[in-house]
Amino acid sequence: MHYDLTDLRLFVAIAEARNLTRGAERVHLAASSASHRMRLLEQSIGTPLLVREPRGVSLTRAGDALLRHARQVFAQLEQMHADLTPYAKGVRGHVSLWANTHATHAFLPDSLAAFLKRHPQVSISLEEHTSPEVVMAVARGEVEVGVVAESIEGAEVELLPYRADRLVLIAPADHPIAQRTRTPFAEVLDYPFVMLHSGSAIHTFTMNAAAALGRHLEVRIQVRSFEAVCRMVSAGVGLGLVPRSAVADGPPREPLAVIELEESWAQRDLKVCVRKREQLSRFAADLVACLTGSEAELP
């Protein structure tokens, strides 16, 4: 197949405009030139992409597939440009960091802001994953630094203390469970829950905790932050499971009951996870030192 980015940009413009002439105008080409390029593109791919109609064009199934992939190509190109731009502005290093939901929402914003202020030549990409996923990625060498709440037996990684916290149950002040100070997780599974969005690490963790008890968690609504969970719970939507720090550090809100969970897994002491600290790149070592409070030890 022989085609270039100009052909793909033209095709996307025509597909979105559903009109060859208007699509050509978007990429600053004459309609005759655009029509010629589209014929060559179809010949190169070996199948029609556009159905020419009296008042515009529509896409064939092949055209739909090409449009989907072309959009992904341009999204990747934009991401590539975004990743490279900092280097043109003086950034000399990059660190990939994976962390669980708890760390990502509760502690890392302040920690990373402090690090980047002291190390303006470094950029960081942060991705949210479950703790087991983070540990395995670090063990395989795919990521240099992770922040986790649990490890995996046999994983060859080093764990360094980061923050101590605990998952707690929150309930509206007038909820039947609100008078308790402690409760087993199994005794609240008959009530609906407010959860972080599906795919978040804590969502996966909580659903697995319920499944381990042979139960299914009823999720009434999913939101994007611990603060939103607290607000929904305060409004009476359901119960929530959040880090204690999310309740203590949040802005003033309606009365909210905080109940301790009796499960050992509720203790969520966060740790920085690395494969071997002495083998870290200098920038990753700087980040680990900042997270663990050992920057003064660096030469």
UniProtKB/TrEMBL annotation:
Pfam families membership: HTH_1, LysR_substrate
Residue span, HTH lysR-type domain: 1-60
Tell me where on the tree of life, at the top rank, the source sits: Bacteria
Q: Which UniProt keywords apply?
A: DNA-binding, Transcription, Transcription regulation
- Tell me, what is one Gene Ontology molecular-function annotation carried by this entry? DNA-binding transcription factor activity
Tell me which GO cellular component terms the UniProt record holds.
cytosol
Extract the SUPFAM superfamilies matched here.
Periplasmic binding protein-like II, Winged helix' DNA-binding domain
Question: What family is reported?
Answer: Belongs to the LysR transcriptional regulatory family.
Q: Mind telling me what this protein is named?
A: LysR family transcriptional regulator
Can you name the source organism?
Answer: Aquipseudomonas guryensis
